[in-house]
């Protein structure tokens, strides 16, 4: 790792502040980046990790590019009519909370495009354009202020707070952001003074909703930049990982090698949720007592983009990727699905295995027989889901693996002794057919059969590794709470079930 001096006024560090302290911490949070989001403030519709507000001045023209890209990507029967395009353009360019609603179908179609390869390229292009505009309008002027340059050299953390708050305000209201820059050029100010200025002169004359949005945005950006300051100035494991990614590799957006690098996934999640991220940093880098923390996507779309990060009360950090891989932090680095990612010579590493062997959430035969992968409920769920797929004429997919693991976890939590059948629910007045997956213990015609159910969408979207981790935790909790005699009885019970015997 190269030596680095933290200077919030240089271009690359300003970009990291814009992407992370402003973008992730105060705008994206645990929501999806590659979808349209409606602001709770006055911005209207936006998209991207570095929030691009289509309703803001000089930004609405990108709606034309968005809709043109969608029309080129969509099939002939999914394209919008000229009249629909005109209506969408008006609503997407409208600021505020009213008069710009999109239907669920419109959102679904547009978000499908934004998650596609050309859609992602469109969003990333907006982010880069936004960063360049912020540098030209905010970063460059700030870097020319003599007293702020001196502060950056003597107290870079405080200078970074000023940069983050100014950038955030400019993104929310360019007029008020420009006023703040003029105020900074007029004389030296502390971070606390700038915070107070934004909460008073910076919002005077604005509507109450806009004032509230600016104040909360300021505070969220501060939380993000303070965590970033810790990462930039610390010497611990997470600080080193941060500087390696952001400064050595130039990965300021934390997007390069995302699925394969747990450091990147962890840092992304920490910056999205700075309060939980600060807990993780305090324990890992500063040796503070561990306090449980969990960071996960706010909805199904977000969970397709970001990893689920958890730290238990013992300080064990686990990262479950959107693909279903489970990374566990160890004293030597990381393990991936139980296999060290960096092992001693002669030991087979996770990276040496073919992709089809237990990667991406698939249930491979390499699982240790004493681990949850060999749990009877999991084997039974796999067989039952395979029969369900066959009955529906469906191929076996990664979603089938997710459902198998979810059903096994469901059965264990609901006290089922085995899984004999897996079915989909029928239509009801409130739910469509197939809305729920049902695990059945016993004969389908037996009135005494036992059942458990869960939403099908949850079952197929929950990563395999996450379900297996929960299954293992339940087994460990059970083992710690029973006597040796009960354990012996439990070890006999599965065999009796396999023989079809009853007690």
TrEMBL record:
Annotated Basic and acidic residues bias: 494-503
Alphabetical list of InterPro entries matching this protein: X-Tfes_XVIPCD (IPR046519)
Domain named X-Tfes XVIPCD: residues: 374-473
Location of region: Disordered: 478-503
Biased composition (Polar residues): 478-489
Full protein name: X-Tfes XVIPCD domain-containing protein
Source species: Lysobacter silvisoli
């Amino acid at each position: 790792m190269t030596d680095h001096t933290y200077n919030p006024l240089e271009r690359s560090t300003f970009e990291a502040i814009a992407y992370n302290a402003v973008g992730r911490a105060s705008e994206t949070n645990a929501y999806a980046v590659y979808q349209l989001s409606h602001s709770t403030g006055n911005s209207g519709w936006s998209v991207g990790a570095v929030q691009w507000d289509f309703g803001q001045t000089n930004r609405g023209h990108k709606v034309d590019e968005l809709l043109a890209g969608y029309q080129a990507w969509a099939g002939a029967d999914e394209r919008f009519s000229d009249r629909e395009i005109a209506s969408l353009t008006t609503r997407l360019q409208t600021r505020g909370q009213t008069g710009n609603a999109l239907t669920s179908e419109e959102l679904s179609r547009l978000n499908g495009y934004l998650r596609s390869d050309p859609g992602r390229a469109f969003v990333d292009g907006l982010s880069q354009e936004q960063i360049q505009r912020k540098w030209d309008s905010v970063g460059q002027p700030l870097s020319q202020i003599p007293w702020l340059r001196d502060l950056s050299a003597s107290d870079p953390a405080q200078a970074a707070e000023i940069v983050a708050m100014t950038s955030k305000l400019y993104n929310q209201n360019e007029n008020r952001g420009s006023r703040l820059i003029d105020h900074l050029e007029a004389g030296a100010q502390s971070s606390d003074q700038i915070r107070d200025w934004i909460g008073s002169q910076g919002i005077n004359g604005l509507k109450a909703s806009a004032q509230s949005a600016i104040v909360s945005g300021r505070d969220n950006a501060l939380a993000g930049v303070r965590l970033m300051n810790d990462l930039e100035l610390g010497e611990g494991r997470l600080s080193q990982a941060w500087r390696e990614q952001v400064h050595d590799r130039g990965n300021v957006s934390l997007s390069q090698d995302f699925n394969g690098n747990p450091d990147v996934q962890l840092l992304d999640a920490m910056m999205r949720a700075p309060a939980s991220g600060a807990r993780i940093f305090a324990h890992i880098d500063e040796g503070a007592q561990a306090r449980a923390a969990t960071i996960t996507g706010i909805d199904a779309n977000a969970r397709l983009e970001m990893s689920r990060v958890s730290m238990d009360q013992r300080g064990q950090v686990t990262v479950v990727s959107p693909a279903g891989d489970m990374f566990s932090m160890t004293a030597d680095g990381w393990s991936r699905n139980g296999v060290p990612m960096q092992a001693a010579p002669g030991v087979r590493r996770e990276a040496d295995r073919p992709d089809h062997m237990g990667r991406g959430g698939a249930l491979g035969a390499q699982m240790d027989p004493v681990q949850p992968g060999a749990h009877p409920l999991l084997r039974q769920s796999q067989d039952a889901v395979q029969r369900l797929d066959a009955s529906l004429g469906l191929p076996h997919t990664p979603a089938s693996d997710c459902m198998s693991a979810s059903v096994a976890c469901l059965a264990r939590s609901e006290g089922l002794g085995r899984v004999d059948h897996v079915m989909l629910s029928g239509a009801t007045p409130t739910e469509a057919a197939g809305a729920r997956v049902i695990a059945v213990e016993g004969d389908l015609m037996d009135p005494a059969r036992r059942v458990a159910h869960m939403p099908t969408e949850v079952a197929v979207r929950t990563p395999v590794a996450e379900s297996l981790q929960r299954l293992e935790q339940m087994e460990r909790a059970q083992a710690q709470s029973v006597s040796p005699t009960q354990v012996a009885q439990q070890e006999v019970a599965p065999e009796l079930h396999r023989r079809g015997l009853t007690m």
